[in-house]
Write a structure and sequence with these properties.
- This protein is α/β, with parallel strands linked by helices and 193 residues long.
- The protein has a single domain, classed as Rossmann fold, CATH 3.40.50.300.
- Helices cover 40% and strands 20% of the residues.
- The chain contains seven helices and nine strands, in the order βαβββαββαβαβααβα.
- The protein has a five-stranded parallel beta sheet with strand order 2-7-1-8-9, with helices on both faces.
- β5 and β6 form a beta hairpin.
- α1 crosses α7.
- The longest helix has 15 residues.
- It starts with 6 loop residues before the first strand and ends in a 9-residue tail after the last helix.
Length: 193
Protein backbone atom coordinates (compact mmCIF):
# COMPACT_ATOMS: atom_id res chain seq x y z
CA UNK A 1 0.00 0.00 0.00
CA UNK A 2 1.39 3.37 -0.94
CA UNK A 3 0.97 6.59 0.96
CA UNK A 4 -0.31 6.78 4.48
CA UNK A 5 -2.03 3.87 6.15
CA UNK A 6 -5.77 3.55 5.97
CA UNK A 7 -8.26 3.75 8.80
CA UNK A 8 -11.15 1.39 8.10
CA UNK A 9 -14.32 1.65 10.16
CA UNK A 10 -16.51 -1.45 10.51
CA UNK A 11 -20.05 -0.93 11.76
CA UNK A 12 -23.39 -2.66 11.50
CA UNK A 13 -26.39 -3.71 13.55
CA UNK A 14 -26.28 -5.57 16.83
CA UNK A 15 -25.62 -9.33 16.55
CA UNK A 16 -24.42 -9.07 12.94
CA UNK A 17 -21.06 -10.48 14.03
CA UNK A 18 -18.83 -7.39 14.06
CA UNK A 19 -16.85 -8.70 17.02
CA UNK A 20 -16.51 -12.17 15.50
CA UNK A 21 -15.29 -10.80 12.16
CA UNK A 22 -12.88 -8.40 13.91
CA UNK A 23 -11.56 -11.28 16.06
CA UNK A 24 -10.95 -13.32 12.91
CA UNK A 25 -9.02 -10.42 11.40
CA UNK A 26 -7.00 -10.00 14.61
CA UNK A 27 -6.09 -13.71 14.64
CA UNK A 28 -5.41 -14.28 10.92
CA UNK A 29 -4.17 -10.88 9.70
CA UNK A 30 -1.73 -9.54 12.31
CA UNK A 31 -0.59 -6.79 9.94
CA UNK A 32 -4.00 -5.14 10.45
CA UNK A 33 -4.19 -3.34 13.80
CA UNK A 34 -7.62 -3.83 15.42
CA UNK A 35 -8.75 -1.32 18.02
CA UNK A 36 -10.00 -2.49 21.42
CA UNK A 37 -12.95 -0.36 22.53
CA UNK A 38 -13.78 0.72 26.06
CA UNK A 39 -17.21 0.02 27.49
CA UNK A 40 -19.16 0.45 30.68
CA UNK A 41 -21.16 -2.74 30.17
CA UNK A 42 -20.19 -5.81 32.17
CA UNK A 43 -18.20 -8.54 30.42
CA UNK A 44 -20.13 -11.35 28.76
CA UNK A 45 -19.06 -14.92 29.58
CA UNK A 46 -15.65 -15.59 28.08
CA UNK A 47 -14.77 -11.95 27.41
CA UNK A 48 -11.34 -10.84 28.59
CA UNK A 49 -10.52 -7.28 29.66
CA UNK A 50 -8.05 -5.72 27.26
CA UNK A 51 -8.70 -8.33 24.56
CA UNK A 52 -12.39 -8.02 23.75
CA UNK A 53 -12.96 -4.65 25.44
CA UNK A 54 -11.46 -2.48 28.12
CA UNK A 55 -14.18 -2.67 30.79
CA UNK A 56 -14.34 0.57 32.75
CA UNK A 57 -16.62 2.28 35.26
CA UNK A 58 -19.01 5.05 34.25
CA UNK A 59 -16.79 7.49 36.15
CA UNK A 60 -13.61 6.44 34.30
CA UNK A 61 -15.44 6.59 30.96
CA UNK A 62 -16.72 10.11 31.69
CA UNK A 63 -13.18 11.19 32.57
CA UNK A 64 -11.90 9.80 29.27
CA UNK A 65 -14.57 11.79 27.40
CA UNK A 66 -13.83 14.99 29.33
CA UNK A 67 -10.08 14.68 28.72
CA UNK A 68 -10.47 14.06 24.97
CA UNK A 69 -9.05 10.53 25.19
CA UNK A 70 -11.74 9.04 22.93
CA UNK A 71 -11.91 9.31 19.14
CA UNK A 72 -15.62 8.56 19.34
CA UNK A 73 -18.09 7.42 21.94
CA UNK A 74 -21.78 6.71 22.32
CA UNK A 75 -24.46 5.51 24.67
CA UNK A 76 -25.66 2.33 22.96
CA UNK A 77 -29.14 0.82 23.34
CA UNK A 78 -29.73 3.46 26.01
CA UNK A 79 -27.77 1.34 28.46
CA UNK A 80 -23.98 1.19 28.17
CA UNK A 81 -21.30 3.55 26.87
CA UNK A 82 -18.77 2.47 24.26
CA UNK A 83 -15.82 4.37 22.85
CA UNK A 84 -12.56 4.16 20.93
CA UNK A 85 -9.35 5.26 22.66
CA UNK A 86 -7.70 7.89 20.44
CA UNK A 87 -3.99 7.37 21.17
CA UNK A 88 -3.67 3.72 20.04
CA UNK A 89 -5.40 4.56 16.72
CA UNK A 90 -3.04 7.47 16.10
CA UNK A 91 -0.03 5.32 17.02
CA UNK A 92 -1.04 2.49 14.65
CA UNK A 93 -1.63 4.87 11.76
CA UNK A 94 1.60 6.72 12.54
CA UNK A 95 3.48 3.41 12.38
CA UNK A 96 2.05 2.81 8.90
CA UNK A 97 -0.26 -0.06 9.84
CA UNK A 98 -3.75 -0.39 8.40
CA UNK A 99 -6.10 0.18 11.34
CA UNK A 100 -9.57 -1.25 11.89
CA UNK A 101 -12.22 0.15 14.21
CA UNK A 102 -15.16 -2.14 15.03
CA UNK A 103 -17.79 0.28 16.34
CA UNK A 104 -21.49 1.09 16.33
CA UNK A 105 -23.34 3.37 13.93
CA UNK A 106 -23.22 6.41 16.21
CA UNK A 107 -19.47 6.05 16.56
CA UNK A 108 -19.01 5.62 12.81
CA UNK A 109 -20.83 8.90 12.24
CA UNK A 110 -18.54 10.66 14.72
CA UNK A 111 -15.44 9.25 13.03
CA UNK A 112 -16.77 10.34 9.61
CA UNK A 113 -17.09 13.89 10.98
CA UNK A 114 -13.59 13.95 12.50
CA UNK A 115 -11.72 11.71 10.01
CA UNK A 116 -13.52 11.96 6.66
CA UNK A 117 -10.67 10.17 4.84
CA UNK A 118 -11.44 6.94 6.72
CA UNK A 119 -13.09 4.13 4.76
CA UNK A 120 -16.46 2.96 6.07
CA UNK A 121 -17.62 -0.66 5.79
CA UNK A 122 -21.16 -1.71 6.76
CA UNK A 123 -21.42 -5.32 7.94
CA UNK A 124 -24.86 -6.66 7.03
CA UNK A 125 -26.62 -9.90 7.93
CA UNK A 126 -27.72 -12.26 5.15
CA UNK A 127 -31.32 -11.57 6.24
CA UNK A 128 -33.36 -10.08 9.09
CA UNK A 129 -34.34 -13.60 10.20
CA UNK A 130 -30.69 -14.60 10.47
CA UNK A 131 -29.91 -11.50 12.53
CA UNK A 132 -32.72 -12.38 14.97
CA UNK A 133 -31.50 -16.00 15.12
CA UNK A 134 -27.95 -14.86 15.94
CA UNK A 135 -29.09 -12.49 18.66
CA UNK A 136 -31.33 -15.08 20.31
CA UNK A 137 -28.76 -17.84 19.76
CA UNK A 138 -25.92 -16.14 21.57
CA UNK A 139 -28.03 -16.16 24.73
CA UNK A 140 -26.30 -13.18 26.35
CA UNK A 141 -29.35 -10.88 26.59
CA UNK A 142 -32.69 -11.33 28.29
CA UNK A 143 -35.99 -10.85 26.42
CA UNK A 144 -36.19 -7.13 27.25
CA UNK A 145 -32.60 -6.48 26.13
CA UNK A 146 -33.18 -8.44 22.89
CA UNK A 147 -36.25 -6.32 22.12
CA UNK A 148 -34.25 -3.11 22.63
CA UNK A 149 -31.40 -4.40 20.46
CA UNK A 150 -33.71 -5.53 17.65
CA UNK A 151 -35.48 -2.17 17.59
CA UNK A 152 -32.07 -0.48 17.34
CA UNK A 153 -30.99 -2.95 14.63
CA UNK A 154 -33.88 -1.95 12.37
CA UNK A 155 -32.72 1.68 12.52
CA UNK A 156 -29.07 0.66 12.02
CA UNK A 157 -29.86 -1.45 8.94
CA UNK A 158 -31.45 1.57 7.30
CA UNK A 159 -28.11 3.43 7.55
CA UNK A 160 -26.20 1.11 5.21
CA UNK A 161 -26.28 3.72 2.43
CA UNK A 162 -24.09 6.03 4.57
CA UNK A 163 -21.16 3.63 4.13
CA UNK A 164 -18.63 3.25 1.33
CA UNK A 165 -19.27 -0.48 0.91
CA UNK A 166 -21.41 -3.23 2.41
CA UNK A 167 -20.00 -6.64 3.32
CA UNK A 168 -22.54 -9.40 3.99
CA UNK A 169 -21.57 -11.59 6.94
CA UNK A 170 -22.81 -14.90 5.54
CA UNK A 171 -19.51 -16.61 6.42
CA UNK A 172 -17.04 -15.19 8.95
CA UNK A 173 -13.89 -16.17 7.04
CA UNK A 174 -15.20 -14.81 3.73
CA UNK A 175 -16.48 -11.58 5.32
CA UNK A 176 -13.17 -11.06 7.13
CA UNK A 177 -11.18 -11.63 3.95
CA UNK A 178 -13.33 -9.12 2.07
CA UNK A 179 -12.94 -6.62 4.91
CA UNK A 180 -9.15 -7.05 4.94
CA UNK A 181 -9.07 -6.50 1.18
CA UNK A 182 -10.69 -3.10 1.79
CA UNK A 183 -8.06 -2.21 4.42
CA UNK A 184 -5.42 -2.74 1.73
CA UNK A 185 -7.17 -1.03 -1.18
CA UNK A 186 -6.45 2.61 -1.95
CA UNK A 187 -9.47 4.82 -1.43
CA UNK A 188 -11.30 4.90 -4.79
CA UNK A 189 -11.51 8.25 -6.56
CA UNK A 190 -15.30 7.87 -6.49
CA UNK A 191 -15.30 7.86 -2.69
CA UNK A 192 -18.04 10.19 -1.51
CA UNK A 193 -17.15 13.57 -0.01
Amino acid sequence: MTGRSRLTVLAGPTAVGKGTVAAYVREHYPEVWVSVSVTTRPPRPGEVDGVHYHFVSDERFDTMVAEGELLEWALVHGRAKYGTPRRPVEEALGAGRPALLEIDLQGARQVRASMPDAFFVFLAPPSWEELVRRLVGRGTEDEEERAVRLATARVELAAAAEFDVTVVNDDVRRAAEELVSWTRTPVPSTKRD
